[in-house]
Amino acid sequence: MNELCTDMGFVNLNKYGEELCGDHVEIAPVEDKLTVMVLADGLGSGVKASILSTLTAKIISTMMANFLTVEDCVDTIAAILPICKERQIAYSTFTIIRIADNQNAEIIQYDNPHVILLRHGKNFDYPKTAEIIEDSSTGEDLFTGRKTIYRTRIELHEDDTFIAMTDGAIHAGMGQSFNFGWQRENVIAFMEGIYNREYTAKTLSTMLLDKCYSLYNGKPGDDTTICTVKIRRRQPINLLAGPPLNPADVPKMMGLFFSKEGKHIVCGGTTSALAAEFLRKPLETGIPRYTDPDIPPTAKIRGVDLVTEGVVTIHKVLEYAQDYIGDNGSYAQWNAGRDGASEIARLLFEEATDINLYVGKAVNPAHQNSDLPVPFSLKMRLIDELADCLKQMGKKVKVSYF
Predict the structure, then answer these.
(1) Does residue 229 contact residue 162 with C-beta atoms inside 8 Å?
(2) Contact predicate 201/9, CB 8 Å
(3) Which SS3 state, helix, strand or coil, does residue 398 take?
(4) Which of 56, 95, 98 has the alpha carbon at shortest distance from 74?
(5) Where are the chain's structural domains?
């Protein structure tokens, strides 16, 4: 396994007045060797478009992950997708990005706006080969109007950032802010202007979608989806929460935790005291400073990157995580916050690629207080749910219980 990894994040808007989005993103990871992302835009909008795009994305991602050809995928889609009664055609446009060993990418594009590649934060004009795919039995073009598929193979560099989108992005502002919509070159200029190599794929997608929503004046005229794929260096983060069930296991737990490469987060008062004792450093609490009245203040231990309270803080981090894998509406809150939960969120969501969770199963008598917003009995479930959210973000997560 090389030192690079693939970070993916997507967000979408429904067409104004529609309950379902007609776009669909499917990501199919295959161990550490291959990752396939498919962005499909179903014909029309609403339920029909949602069915078309979901079928297309799921079929293509499964077949491409199993090394079938795009010709096989297109044959299957043409045979399976329902026919539109109005237009007498059955298709969904799609964009495929297949990443192999985090070193090479294959991009296949059919009728979606072309993928933008930012290299060193600037637009990179990658090569494209045009192909017409014909039905294997009849020799006829599968798509009305002889549509062309564009194929690209490219060697990857660290921080390469691919931005895939549906046509709702380039239609944003049509007839309002712009006569002919927000063109691809406008999107490129915007992304170059906001680019920061520290931003995650999800953050970049969110920022671009927020701009589209603004151009639509809050009433999107089309389903709009942004999916960003970023090649980044692996960054491990380690989090310790709770003392071990057996006090004799404290040296083992602390030794394993602090021996891990990467930044270290310690959560919980008792856990912090044990960590300070293990490191033979003072636990500095000082005068409590509540940057958020709902989140307990942080502390300091030399040799530890972040020291926070336990269960209440982790519960807030879980809320942020659940929002992050959805529409990421709380991004501005935790990105700017200086409380413990916000700082943990930034480390886990934005910095980390590989996360090691060390969880002690000892019952803390202080947590038996019925006034606590999060009963201690839920502690294990909180950790399990947080780990699941982190996995959905594409993180490699390992949980060790003591």
Answers:
(1) yes
(2) yes
(3) strand
(4) 56
(5) 4-233, 236-401
95-120 pLDDT tens trace? 999 999 889 999 999 889 999 999 99
Angle at 172 between CA 39 and CA 324, to 5 degrees: 55
pTM metric for this prediction: 0.86
249, 273 Cβ separation under 8 angstroms: no
Q: Give 129-184 pLDDT, tens digit per residue.
A: 998 876 554 444 444 445 688 999 999 999 999 999 999 999 887 756 565 668 89
* Structure tokens that stand for 394 in this block: 């594409």
Q: Which CATH number fits domain 4-233: 3.30.420.40, 3.90.1150.10, 3.60.40.10, 3.40.1360.10?
A: 3.60.40.10
Counted residue by residue, the chain has a size of: 402
Residue 166: how many CA atoms within 13 Å on its side-chain side?
32
* Cβ atoms of 382 and 224 closer than 8 Å: no
Tokens representing residue 24 in the block: 């669909």
